[in-house]
Amino acid sequence: MFATEQQKRDLAEDGAIVVRGLFSGERLRRMRQAFDHGVTHPSPQHGLAYAGTPDEHFNDYGNPANRDVHLAAIKDLGLAEFVASLWDTEHVWFVGEELFIKKGGKAGRSPWHQDTSSHILQVSR
Fold first, then answer.
1. Which residues does residue 59 pair with via DSSP β-bridges, in sequence order?
2. For residue 51, which phi and psi values (nearest 5 degrees)?
3. I need a labelling partner for 39 at 20 to 30 A (CA). Which of 13, 56, 66, 79 fits?
């Protein structure tokens, strides 16, 4: 799947887009495999945010030990190609993952954070 010209315009204008149909049931299962691997193989800095409160949730991020699993999912699903077409570029970089598990479908608060480029890998197209 490649980005449409309308999606490119919407991204430029709104800063975010919804891409309907990008993830079929099978594609979601593939993403879930990578997510589940990350949860069952957490980094040393993983933990529970807001432990003991109604907003308690699992959080982990930037686990270099899991990068090959996440990178394989990105490649298997052609996500780098889609993003490259959306950005009109040949270069897409995998920075790292952040995993949240919020119990009960709650949207509760998350710790303040700033996205940074701590682990950068080039995704070759």
1. 47, 100
2. -55, 135
3. 79
Look at residues 19, 124, 26, 24 and name the one whose alpha carbon lies nearest to residue 74.
Answer: 124
Q: Which residues of 27-36 are buried (b: 16+ CB within 10 A; e: fewer)?
A: beebbeebbe
Helix (H, G, I), strand (E, B) or coil at 25: helix
CA distance 101 to 93: 25
- Per-residue DSSP letters for 63-75? -GGGHHHHHHHHH
* Residue 3 structure tokens: 């980005």
For the four alpha carbons of 78, 24, 22 and 115, in that order, the dihedral sign comes to negative
Residues 8-42 have pLDDT tens digits of 999 999 988 999 989 999 999 999 999 999 999 99
The CA distance from 37 to 69, in Å, is 8
